[in-house]
Every structure is written in C-alpha cells, then in structure tokens.
Design a protein that fits this description.
Helix content: 25-40%
Distance between the termini: 24 Å
Order of helices and strands: EHHEEEEHEHEHEEHEH
Number of strands: 10
Radius of gyration: 20 Å
Structural class: alpha/beta
Strand content: 25-35%
Length: 242
Amino acid sequence: MKDLPLFYAPALRDELQLPEGEAQHALRVLRAKVGDAYLVTDGCGTLFETRVTGVDRRHCLLSIEHEEQWAKYWRGHWAVAVAPTKNIDRLEWTLEKMVEVGLDDIYLIRTQHSERKHTSPERLERIIQSAMKQSHKALLPRLIPDVPFAQLLTETADYDLRLMAHCRETTGPERKMPHHFFRPEAKILLMVGPEGDFSVEEIETASQQGCLPITLGASRLRTETASLIALQWLHTLDMTQR
C-alpha cells in the first residue's frame, strides 16, 4: 500500500464515506478535495486504498480502488491485562504505546489493590483508534474494560500461556521469564497489577489455575512501564525465532 494518511471507517464497504469525526479531520486538517487518495481500515485487518469522490462541510465520500489484508507482524494472539492506574493520564499513555507496539486484546482489570475501580471506555477507545492509525496498523485491538480479576481468569482459561508479572516473594514457583514455553503462534495473556501489586491471594489463585509468575527484572517498575516492557518482551522473543 502507498504511504498515505490512514483513517478508520468500520462500515466503509456499506457507507463509502468517512465517519463524522474522521471526515472532519480530513476536511479541516488535510483540506480534502475530490481526487485525493487516502488509506482506510475497518479495524478488522483490511486496508483500503480509496479516492475522494465528494466533499461538503460534514461529509467525505470515497470510492474503493484497492483492498488487501494487512499482515500483522506478531504471529500469535496476544492480550495484556492491566489494572488501571490512579492517574488516568498514565493509563492513556500505556494504551497508546501498547497499540503502537502491537497486540490483539486489552483487558482493564479490577484487583484487590486497584485504586481506580472504573474507567470510561469511550475516550480510551478513541486513544486506541488514534494509536492504530498513527502506527499504520489495520487491526484495532479489542478493549475489554472493568473486568474483575476472577472473571479474567475464567474468560482466558483457554489461553496457551498466562503470565503474571508481580514483585512479591512467594513460596510458589520461581519467577522466571519462561522462554522455553514461548511459541510464536500461541495465545498468550500478560497480567500486570496495580500500583500496590497483586495480592498474595490473587497470586495463589492464578497459580492454582495454571498461570505462571514472571519477573521483569530487578527494578521495581510502575504499572505502565511494566505493561510495555512485558509486551515488548513477547515481540523480541517472536523476532528471535524467525
């Protein structure tokens, strides 16, 4: 595909126009005019090369000239479950950067030590969409907000590998990066706790259900830093096995 501005239009095939918010950006910022070429994604992995066929003060009409499937560069299905931070700006930064790095699902979880119990998904969805477009991806990660920790374990029971990053000393398995368990095509969940870490009870429950404890190194990391480092670790393992 050509190096063109990328827009998000989940219903492009049916509507042949940009959604209102995207249209306003094209009209006001890019000064869209008939004949201009743009890339559009439906967020489900399809990239469309389009041409502007009509504009007015609110609408940007398009024709589809070519489409192709975007090949994501990680081979598995990867999810990160993170406890939202008390400072919402840090959570927003985390989501933006994780989308730029690349993943499939984002769970926002409620744990015993969570300081932020609820989040408003509308703004977070917009941040995820923006990060997808900025990093020129055609796959919009799924955001699953306000998930209790016990529910997370139930919903991800079919994952091939579930990794729990925490800082507590426990009597359970030694916390190691399980390189020998990693398979590039696997379905993998990374879990990162709140500022106060996962509770001992949560760690024990997760371990009983087959989750593996991991360490991200000697440094004590903020939640947002740990999330990004853990995700990049998967990408690094994937690249080394190609």
